[in-house]
Amino acid sequence: MARKQELIITTTTTAITTFLRLKAFRSDRGGKFNSLEFEAYCSEHGIKHFTTTAYSPQQNGVVEHQNCTVVEMARCLLKSKGIPAEFWGEAVKMVVYILNREPTRSLLGRTPYEAWHNRKPKVSHMRTFGCVAHVKRVGPGVDKLADRSTPMVFLGYEAGTKGYRVYHPVAKKLQVSRDVVFEEHRSWNWEEPGRSSKPPVTFDVEFFTVTESGTM
């Protein structure tokens, strides 16, 4: 029941905040879409609800193709920084966030965000998923000589705010903060809690020849 009500609330909120009325809705035959509550909602608001037949993903090909894209990109995000699979939900949300701000040919070079909000998206705040994020320590309990920040892992953006979603692997806690400094080239060492891994240091080696007299 909770998921059915959530679906109705989400649909209503979207209509109110965007001043757009949903005319048609296509879905599979999942229980939340076939509930009496949702059907009554669609009927009351003049929404046409179409359903696909079982085991026929081709009937909703655009959505199925996009789902595959999201899953593949999420897998890449997790692998690129060695993030445990338990954070797949955060990776999926990040992928959707990125795709909504990426130009597409179907919208004549515009982004989905621009088509929906009628303005270009801001991207200057975007950072590398899974990188090390130093979160400012605040509060009356912070010692004057203690570190000014705590290293965590960046997992995304908090909807409706300007905050970043960060995870503390040692405390096993997810939090939201605006005061963050990122090291996008660094990854967290998940095998050793409390440590972040640094990229290998590279340097140039110059070869020289030593003569019999000892000069170079």
From TrEMBL:
<dbReference type="GO" id="GO:0003676">
    <property type="term" value="F:nucleic acid binding"/>
</dbReference>
<dbReference type="InterPro" id="IPR057670">
    <property type="entry name" value="SH3_retrovirus"/>
</dbReference>
<dbReference type="Pfam" id="PF25597">
    <property type="entry name" value="SH3_retrovirus"/>
</dbReference>
<feature type="domain" description="Integrase catalytic">
    <location>
        <begin position="1"/>
        <end position="120"/>
    </location>
</feature>
<protein>
    <recommendedName>
        <fullName>Integrase catalytic domain-containing protein</fullName>
    </recommendedName>
</protein>
<dbReference type="GO" id="GO:0015074">
    <property type="term" value="P:DNA integration"/>
</dbReference>
<dbReference type="InterPro" id="IPR039537">
    <property type="entry name" value="Retrotran_Ty1/copia-like"/>
</dbReference>
<dbReference type="InterPro" id="IPR036397">
    <property type="entry name" value="RNaseH_sf"/>
</dbReference>
<dbReference type="InterPro" id="IPR001584">
    <property type="entry name" value="Integrase_cat-core"/>
</dbReference>
<dbReference type="InterPro" id="IPR012337">
    <property type="entry name" value="RNaseH-like_sf"/>
</dbReference>
